[in-house]
Write a structure and sequence with these properties.
By secondary structure, the chain is of the alpha+beta class. Helices cover 38% and strands 22% of the residues. The chain contains four helices and three strands, in the order αβββααα. Strands 1-2-3 form a three-stranded antiparallel β-sheet, covered by helices on one side. α1 crosses α4. The two termini are 21 Å apart.
Length: 86
């Protein structure tokens, strides 16, 4: 069973002006591209995210864990927050 929903991820990525594709890194879910250039690899393949679970408690825990870095535009945790946990 997949650990993320690619269609939801692509929709969320479009909202922030980036594109996503399945990652070439075997441990990550997605590669994020801006203007055709890779800017980050996000999401561990070993865990489910909000695109699948829709679990508000897990979302809240993610937001707390990455509170400092997710607000910095351009960081992998920023993209994960906007794409996988929105």
């Amino acid at each position: 069973m997949p650990t993320y929903d690619l269609a939801i991820a692509k929709k969320n990525a479009a909202k922030i002006g980036v594109e996503v594709m399945p990652s070439k890194n075997k441990k990550k879910k997605l590669d994020v591209y801006k203007y055709g250039k890779k800017v980050a690899s996000i999401g561990s393949k070993y865990y489910y995210d909000y695109t699948i679970t829709r679990d508000k408690q897990k979302q809240k825990a993610y937001l707390a864990r990455f509170a400092k870095t997710r607000v910095k535009v351009g960081t992998p945790s920023y993209y994960a927050w906007k794409i996988l946990w929105a």
